[in-house]
Design goal:
Number of strands: 2
Strand content: 5-15%
CATH architecture: Orthogonal Bundle
Oligomer: single chain
Helix content: 40-55%
Shape: globular
Order of helices and strands: HHHEEH
Strand order of the largest sheet: 1-2
Radius of gyration: 13 Å
Largest sheet: 2 strands, antiparallel
Number of domains: 1
CATH superfamily: Winged helix-like DNA-binding domain superfamily/Winged helix DNA-binding domain
CATH class: Mainly Alpha
Distance between the termini: 13 Å
Length: 88
């Protein structure tokens, strides 16, 4: 189990629920992001950076699509949906 699986699943849930811009994501996304957030040079955690990195990773995997300043879940990616269902 990847340390990012919970965060990835929560991001996909938020986008599916219509909170499809970075600024409208909330709740467990930020809580899970705090757990995996990279630290900057001064030792501070940046959860926004963690969410952004995971959004881009999901986009590269073909799970998410970004268009017109909004994220959407790709409907053709059944593999990821099965992974989510198995994890719940």
């Amino acid at each position: 189990m990847s340390r990012f699986e919970k965060l990835d699943a929560e991001i996909v849930k938020e986008i599916s629920a219509g909170r499809n811009t970075f600024s409208t994501m909330r709740g467990l996304v930020w809580e899970f992001a705090r757990q995996v957030a990279p630290k900057d040079r001064r030792g501070r955690m940046d959860e926004g950076r963690a969410v952004d990195l995971r959004l881009q990773a999901l986009r590269k995997r073909g799970v998410l699509h970004y268009q017109d300043r909004r994220w959407s879940v790709c409907t053709h990616n059944d593999e990821f949906r099965h992974e989510l269902a198995a994890g719940e």
